[in-house]
Amino acid sequence: MLLRKTAWFWKSDLAAISFALIFSISGCRDTPPEEAAVSEAVIDIPSIPEESQEDADEIINICIALYEKAEKENKLADLETIRNIVNRLGENGYSAVDSKNQINMTEAEQAVWFCEMADAEEEAEITIIEVSYLPGFVKYDLHTKDGNLDVDRSYYRYENGEIHRNATGSYQAEYWDYTEEGYLMFSGVWYSEELYILTLSG
What we know:
Layout: H1 2-25, H2 50-72, H3 79-91, E1 95-98, H4 108-119, E2 124-132, E3 136-145, E4 148-159, E5 162-172, E6 175-178, E7 184-187, E8 191-192, H5 193-201
Parallel strand pairs: 1-2
Antiparallel strand pairs: 2-3, 3-4, 4-5, 5-8, 6-7
Helix pairs in contact: 2-3
């Protein structure tokens, strides 16, 4: 019994001492802490090249009627809707594919030519559209020179009868390959202007 009382006494004293120690370390004081300095940075964000913006406007004009029709029929994420959009882009000369890889790429010979030029370390450009089921699309503007592959990626989203650009990013592909099965794969660190601004303002 005495052992239990002694143990309880030590626990309660230890708790009181710990509380007093924490209270004194936490620093209750009357003076307010120094205010953190707030700095303002001006960031020069490069605008989308005029040619790329005209290209995006043309793609939007090609797709908008199909998205509006699909919205009325409540079939925005339907495979047939995506197939119609991919095919319409192909009819207008664009290499296009769906994001789930269910539909063959239109104008695939352009992608093959681009990869051959990249392998030969020649300069070449191509735009590839990846139609999403969200609904919207990703526009990849690829540029190769001296064996390097630069990627400009813009995401466009359809919402309430309009298509708007939601995000852009640029990066140099650290790895790219055109497989025997006909897949163009590339990866790299994506730089987002919007994320960069949010990081600086945080």
